[in-house]
Amino acid sequence: MVEKALVKVGILFGGKSVEHEVSLLSAKNVMDALDLDRFELVPIFVDKAGRWLLVDSLDSLLEETESGGAAINHGQLVSFFPGGKGRLVHLSDMASSTYVDVVFPVLHGSCGEDGSVQGLLKLAGVPYVGSEIIGSAIGMDKDVSKRLLREAGIPVAPFYAFKRGDVIDGRKVLEELGLPVFVKPASLGSSVGVAKVENVSGLQAAIDAAFKFDAKVLVEKFIEGREIECAVLGNDDPIASVVGEIGSSHDFYSYEAKYVDKKAVKLTLPANIDSTITDRVRALSVQSFNVLCCMGMARVDFFLSKDGSLVVNEINTIPGFTSMSMYPLLWQATGLAYRELVSQLIELAMQRFEMNEELQTSF
Predict the structure, then answer these.
(1) Is residue 321 part of a domain?
(2) Domain of 21, in residue numbers
(3) Which member of 26, 29, 316, 343 is catalytic?
(4) Closest to 185 measured CA to CA, from 219, 158, 156
(5) Which of 17, 145, 190, 191 is flagged as catalytic?
(6) CATH number of the domain residue 309 falls in
């Protein structure tokens, strides 16, 4: 009896992004959860210079990052190329290659979650986990995604979006949105660059700080309410997880609360909310997933006000997979174990790729 070959899974992690360190933590958990009876691990590290490196393990990179090192002198420089069908060329010896059957991007933020890597992998002709180019690009841009959700009748908080160089009338903005407001980069996650502004004098400083991370910035009305999250899984017929709640002793669910101060966060799974509201959250999560052209996976974040009204805060197309991340925890609470979740995500990627391959390219 011939043994079935293992599926080679390229775990793509790191990235040229301020969320680089979060990506390493997420990748560690994904690698640990990989079913080695079915899959073969191929770790591909993207350093902060944007170089792709085939590495033996993640452990030394995590150690260097924790000690303040740059982790730049590891591994074999590699690259996909158009039409390569998963072939990673070794740049030091162009005759040498490593092949992968599917890529699992565990890249958070710019140059990873915004459609750029998805476009490269599509051109390379290799299946990949998560949303395709359009869903990734839309989900990354909070301005565009909120406008599309609003057009579809899905509630979002009132906001203004500004590009670098725009003339900003702060008083007019605050007259309409009130105080406090949240200022955030339009295309970053993990609460990087986010500030809660309590007074008129603090608005411009918060905007200037957000512009250090992005060329577009949102000023958004503060919604007083509980922070509710739901995970979505699937391609054409996605399903929603149980609903969870995040409580934080910080002023809001900041980067420090998410990844540094573990005592600051309280996760309630499932959330202690009315079943009617739970059903509404799950339905809105799937609707948002479809409206924003998502595939594979996403986490949808809400604010739940005291009157029971819901507002979609944002969608994350490559949610965190750290030990504190809600996406895998929500599925665990739903009854889907971490290992099986990772396996399903890989299978969904390969199924979608096969369906796309059947599309005609000649008329």
Answers:
(1) yes
(2) 7-128
(3) 316
(4) 219
(5) 190
(6) 3.30.470.20
Q: Which of 187, 221, 255 is the last residue of a domain?
A: 221
**pLDDT tens per residue across span 270-284:** 999 999 999 999 999
The reply to whether 314 belongs to the active site is: yes
Cα torsion at 238, 242, 243, 248 (round to 10°)? -120
CATH number at residue 217: 3.30.1490.20
End-to-end distance of the chain based on CA atoms, in angstroms?
43
Same domain for 262 and 295, yes or no, is yes
Catalytic residue among 145, 259, 285, 296: 259
Q: Is 128 a catalytic residue?
A: no
202 is catalytic: no
Percent of the chain having pLDDT more than 70?
91
94-134 per-position pLDDT tens digit: 888 999 999 999 999 888 999 999 999 999 999 999 999 99
pLDDT given at position 342 = 98
- Identify the active-site residue in 128, 299, 313, 327: 299
Are the beta carbons of 350 and 102 closer than 8 angstroms?
yes
Each residue's pLDDT tens digit, 305-358: 999 999 999 999 999 998 889 999 999 999 999 999 999 999 999 999 999 999
Residues 213 and 326 in one domain: no
Residues 190 and 229 in one domain: no
More confident site: 3 or 106: 106
Burial of residue 320, with CB atoms counted within 10 A of its CB: 0-12 exposed, 13-18 middle, 19 or more buried? buried
Helix axes 326-334, 338-357, angle to 10 degrees: 100
On whether residue 139 sits in a domain, the answer given is no
Catalytic-residue membership of 190 = yes
Residue 253 falls in the annotated catalytic set: no
How many domains does the chain divide into?
3
Q: In terms of pTM, does the model score above 0.85?
A: yes
316 among known catalytic residues: yes
Q: Catalytic site residue 63?
A: no
Catalytic residue among 296, 314, 325, 352: 314
- The owner of tokens 């030990």 is 323
Active-site residue, from 21, 214, 220, 301 = 301
